[in-house]
Amino acid sequence: NNKELFSQYIYFINNKSFNAYSFKAIPNIPWMMQNDMPSESLIQPAQTGSNTATINSDDYNPYGWKQISSSPTDNFTLSFEAKATTDLHIGFQDIENNLLHITLGGWNNTQSAISFIKENKALTNRYIPSQKQATPSSKVIPDETSFVKYAVTVSAGCLYITANNIPLINFSHNWIKERKFSSYSFKKWSGAQNWMLQSAAIIPTIQIQNPAPVLTLEADEKEIFADDYPTFGWKNLTNTNSLNFSAKGNSDIHIGLQHGPTSYIELVIGGWSNTKSVVRNFTNDIQTEESFSEPGVPQIPDSTSFVNYSITINNGIITVTANQNQIISQSMPSLVGKTFSRYSFRAWSDAPSWILKESSTTNTFDRNGFEQTRTAATQAMQTLQTQVNRVNQIIADAKTAFSNLATQIKYSTPLPW
After folding, report:
1. Closest by alpha carbon to 112, among 131, 140, 136, 148?
2. Minimum mean pLDDT among 34-43, 96-105, 129-138: which range?
3. pTM of the model
4. CA atoms within 13 Å, Cβ hemisphere of 292
């Protein structure tokens, strides 16, 4: 009765033409049909005008990917008008199919989000306002009943969005700066109402006033923002039971340590807004064990400066220190006898990124453990040398005794036997 039942994008019927139709029932359940005439409205595409569309799918493909320019670019403005109550979704693709995904007016038009997506997985999410659930009074879409004119500009790593010429988002990131985008598209969220789009076009790039600065890093610093280990990459360990590194962040420092082809442990330092930490054991990406630290105690002692972390694993005991103060000591008996071959770092997608000082990452030995071992080895060598000296003295005394005995035998009378 003119109410939408479902809308589903199906890849294998894309760009197909149809020339016949039919009906059927399942056994023993007949149904009645009348007015068997194809409806023209059912076979019209969603596009209803030269540049007007109803966005009714939770997928970018039905609208289609439109070219931004003749070659990939990092400097452009997309202009469009939209009438929506919630959840305007805009996507920009680069040549490697990485996706800059923007949600305007999500969560019942209270909040926006920016996501970096690779292979359908969100590497990170940034919420604007920063709290994931904003107050109901803060409306992102300024008018839910009329068309609003939007301009989305990408330039020098900055994403700048206006609605009716009023700034909505001013956000910068090195991930954006490192990419050139080739196409754009629109969609909705599956649980939201359809929205109307018109006059979408690439226009001359708008000059951004006071763009948000891109994070500046030193040569040996790396921003860890991706919610996966492959983005940073797995590095080889030469010492199989320790790792040292320096990091600056306020929560959710994730470290992975492999102990088999498909097995690894994950340490989360300062999770849950820096209230507790956890050690997890995984096999084939399935969590098999989990051990938490005491909640309520900050695990990251300083969020504004680099902190020196040291991880050691011995007989199933996992110990982590921050600036030489122990913050984690967890027992995981399944790790007894295990050796670790590779390490990696990641962030949590909904948490702020953190900075790794790469030059500080040492995996040849644990410095604190090495100093203790060196002291113990020196003491052992001193003890051994004392014992060697005693043995040498015993040998010297024995030589003297034998010499004296030989002299006595030489000048003595023959023995009775």
Report:
1. 140
2. 34-43
3. 0.69
4. 9
